[in-house]
Specification:
By secondary structure, the chain is mainly alpha-helical. The chain has a domain at about 1-65: Helicase, Ruva Protein, domain 3. It is built from 7 helices and no strands. The protein has helices at about 1-10, 20-30, 35-50, 55-65, 70-75, 75-90, 100. α2 packs parallel to α4 (about 55-65) and α3 crosses α4. The two termini are about 30 Å apart.
Length: about 100
């Protein structure tokens, strides 16, 4: 999924995703949303703009390393929102099984 996000955001900027290691980027972007991945691509382009180079895998990995994904930065807020929603909303994918229900 994240590899596909990289491919989409690279293509949207006229870059060929075949020139980067999409699987390595997917692993390096664990916890990132599509928007975070897009920002890493944009940041790599800006960082390399001075040298007129095209971002390679390492340039993108470097940008990911300089960025904290929202799933980390906003962990407490996301957990609180999930807890709130668990009691007040209906999941779009059906009922959520309790941990004890998973074993049956």
């Amino acid at each position: 999924m994240r590899a596909d996000c990289f491919a989409i955001h690279l293509r949207n900027r006229g870059l060929d995703p075949a020139h980067v290691d999409l699987e390595r980027l997917a692993q390096a972007s664990e916890g990132f949303t599509g928007a975070g991945i897009e920002q890493a691509v944009v940041s790599a382009l800006y960082a390399l703009d001075v040298s007129s180079r095209v971002p390679d895998t390492q340039a993108l990995v470097d940008e990911l390393a300089r960025t904290q994904p929202l799933s980390v930065v906003m962990f407490e807020q996301i957990a609180a929102l999930r807890a709130w929603a668990r009691e007040r909303t209906v999941p779009a994918h059906g009922p959520v099984l309790a941990a004890s229900d998973d074993a049956s």
